[in-house]
Structure formats: structure tokens, C-alpha cells
Specification:
The protein contains 12 helices and 8 strands. With 292 residues, the protein is an alpha/beta fold. Bound molecules: adenosine-5'-triphosphate and magnesium ion.
């Protein structure tokens, strides 16, 4: 009997990734004094894995800690903008204009969101033209970095929502970023294409951005009831070990609902488990980024 209890207890201490839960430090307030926005790119060329959902909700959870957060919608689909209630198709200026003109002030493009302390640089379909237009530019890979370097002093964290591609836009995001988070859907073929992504990150690191680091892999759309979801997560942990965040985002219809509502889950359903999972992710991110 006692033995059973012990087993249950130790089982409970195992997180969804099958590893024991770490003791995370309590959330620190943001550093006082001058800001130097830490830039994190959400990147996976596979579509529909939770990049946008993670950008919005991790951003909102970090803003709850008192940090100033800027989201960069870097996908011509404009999903991060729409997900925060911004209609990007009616905007005169978006991130696209900042990429192509050095004379526009980023402050004129930034939109405040309903989340206190969180702003967004919106995008719309115009951005799809940038991919071609940038090809002929000098230092075409550094264009986003040039834009964000002007904004770093105003924010603690800058999160870039990448498009599902490894093209020039994503290379720009990786060149501007300090860290990469890769959301992985806990589904069949989740690992397919990850070698290509890792290869791209390594090439950017070698040639353009030596300080770039993989911050973590995030399991998303996890369904604890299916053996399959757990098997996928086991394989991800086998392949990537401690790079995998202990936090896992479960599948729930609340996330699609938040897109319709145009707000993050932390305000749409503040006491939901989805909101708590993104708050826990924020704690893990801060624990892995001691200077943020
Ligand atoms: N944990 C979750 N549970 C259920 N649905 C989710 C979850 N996370 C995201 N979704 C939904 O899955 C869809 C894809 O998510 P999301 O847009 O975040 O992925 P993405 O990687 O940004 O996609 P794309 O590659 O098209 O940009 C959306 O409808 C979103 O609401
Ligand atoms: Mg997206």
C-alpha cells in the first residue's frame, strides 16, 4: 500500500514530458534601468503548429510579469495581428513599410494591444512582396535586424511570429533574433522537417548571427488521453533532451476561440489551464534567460 502511494507520488512529480518537474525560480520583475529587448523568434516551417498562438500568449504572459513586450507579426497571413483584434488589411503602414524604407519611424507603425504593456508591429499580405523585393537589397538578411535594433531600447522582450517557411523572411527573423523557440505539434510527422530547420538555424548562426541560440522546443496541441500524443512527446524528448520545455500546451478549443475574440487566453479565460500553461512557459523562458 505504502509502496503504491510512493509510486503515485513520484508519478505525479513527472511532468507531461516524462521528466521530473524542475524547481523554477519565482518570476522576477523586469530589470530596472535601460532596456535591451531580448529577441525570440517562433520558428517552424511546418504550418499550423502553434507559432502564432505561442507568440500571442507567451507575449501576454510575459507582459503580466510587468515586462514591456513587442510582438512582430512576420507572416503575410497577418494572423498575430488578427489574433489581437487588429485588422491588418485596413492599415496603411505595416512591418513591410519598415523593411523597405529607412525613413519611416517604427513608432508610427506600432499598434498598442488590449494587453497592458504589449504592442505589435502588424503585417498583412504586402509582406509577401518583401520576400522578392529584398532579394536585390544589400545586406538583405539584416533588414529586420536593422528595424528591431531601433526598438530594443523600448522593450524587455520582442517576439517574432514567423511564417511557415524557411525563406528570406524567416532568415531575416533568425538573423535579428537572440533565441529561437520551435513549437512542435504532438502529432504524427512532428519531427519531419526538424533537421532542415536545425540546419537553417545553424547556417544563420555560422554566417550571420553567431550568438543565435535554440532556447527550446515546445510541445503543443498535446492530448494527454491519447497514447499517440505521449509517444510523440517521448520521441521529441529522446531526440532533443533538455532543450524541450517541461511545459506542454494541451489541445483545447479555447485557443481557436481566443482568435475569434481577438485577445490572448490570459485575458479571455484568465483562470483556464491554457492560460496557466502559457504562464508556466513564461516562467521557464525567464529561467532560461537570466538577463531578460
Ligand atoms: N493548444 C491548442 N489547442 C487547440 N488548438 C490550437 C492550439 N494551439 C493552436 N491551436 C489552433 O490551431 C490552429 C493553428 O495554430 P497557429 O495559428 O498558432 O499555428 P501556426 O504555426 O502559427 O500556423 P501557420 O503556420 O499557419 O502560421 C489555430 O486555429 C489555433 O487556434
Ligand atoms: Mg502563424
Amino acid at each position: 500500500m505504502a509502496r503504491d502511494d510512493e509510486e503515485t507520488l513520484s508519478d505525479e512529480k513527472l511532468g507531461p514530458t516524462g521528466r521530473p518537474w524542475p524547481t523554477l525560480p519565482p518570476v522576477r520583475p523586469p530589470r530596472s534601468g535601460s532596456k535591451h529587448g531580448l529577441i525570440i523568434a517562433m520558428c517552424n516551417q511546418k504550418g499550423g503548429v502553434g507559432k502564432t498562438t505561442t507568440t500571442i500568449n507567451l507575449g501576454a504572459a510575459l507582459a503580466e510579469t510587468g515586462r514591456r513586450v513587442l510582438l512582430v507579426d512576420f507572416d503575410p497571413q497577418g494572423s498575430a495581428s488578427v489574433g489581437l483584434g487588429v485588422n491588418p488589411h485596413t492599415l496603411e503602414r505595416t512591418i513591410y513599410n519598415l523593411l523597405l524604407s529607412r525613413t519611416i519611424d517604427p513608432v508610427d507603425v506600432i499598434v498598442t494591444t488590449s494587453v497592458e504593456g504589449m504592442d505589435i508591429l502588424p503585417a498583412n499580405i504586402d509582406l509577401s512582396a518583401a520576400e522578392l523585393q529584398l532579394v536585390s537589397e544589400v545586406a538583405r538578411e539584416q533588414t529586420l535586424k536593422r528595424v528591431l535594433d531601433r526598438l530594443r531600447g523600448d522593450y524587455d522582450m520582442i517576439l517574432i511570429d514567423c511564417a511557415p517557411s524557411l525563406g528570406l523572411l524567416t532568415v531575416n527573423a533568425l538573423t535579428a533574433a537572440d533565441k529561437v523557440i520551435t513549437p512542435l505539434e504532438c502529432e504524427f510527422f512532428a519531427l519531419r522537417g526538424i533537421a532542415l530547420l536545425t540546419d537553417t538555424v545553424n547556417k544563420v548562426k555560422d554566417r550571420l548571427n553567431p550568438d543565435l541560440e535554440m532556447l527550446g522546443i515546445l510541445g503543443t496541441m498535446f492530448d494527454a488521453r491519447t497514447l499517440h500524443s505521449r509517444e510523440v512527446l517521448d520521441r521529441v524528448v529522446q531526440a532533443f533532451g533538455e532543450t524541450v520545455f517541461h511545459t506542454v500546451i494541451r489541445r483545447t478549443v479555447k485557443f481557436p476561440e481566443t482568435t475569434v475574440a481577438g485577445e490572448p487566453i490570459t485575458t479571455y479565460a484568465p483562470s483556464s489551464s491554457g492560460a496557466d500553461q502559457y504562464r508556466m512557459l513564461a516562467r521557464e523562458v525567464l529561467a532560461r534567460c537570466p538577463d531578460a
